[in-house]
Amino acid sequence: MGHRGLSQRGQRGRSITLTEKRGSTGDLFNMTWDGGLLDGVFIHNNTFFWNPPVERPPVKMTETEFGGSRSNSVINNVIYSTVPSIIHQALE
Questions:
Q1: Residues 56-84: pLDDT tens digits?
Q2: Which residues make beta-bridge pairs with 66?
């Protein structure tokens, strides 16, 4: 039985088995590969409720490359989390 109001995709980060295998993907997960870049990403006006079975942040952007001429932004989002570390990002 799933959490009310969440899609199957939203359940993925809450699976103990998948979390142990891959690390939590969180509720917001961006990833690029094979030289791909994100250009013009606009993530806005979302509300995230994060209560995972293991302590992992709800936002993961560790394997994401941004590029191109358009701006990329994550604005006006609300995150309710039982995990103190909210964002896992790559260090440059």
A1: 888 888 888 899 999 999 899 999 999 88
A2: 38
Closest among 41, 37, 51 to 75, alpha carbons compared = 41
Judge whether 2 lies within some domain: no
Neighbouring CB atoms inside 10 A of 14's CB total 20
Q: Does residue 72 contact residue 38 with C-beta atoms inside 8 Å? A: yes
Number of domains in the chain: 1
SS3 73: strand
Has residue 1 been placed in a domain? Answer: no
Look up residue 32 and give its DSSP letter.
Answer: -
Q: Are 54 and 21 in contact (CB under 8 A)?
A: no
Stated pTM of the model: 0.64
The C-alpha R_g of the chain, in whole angstroms, comes to: 14
Q: Which domain holds residue 62?
A: 8-89
Residue 25 lies in a domain: yes
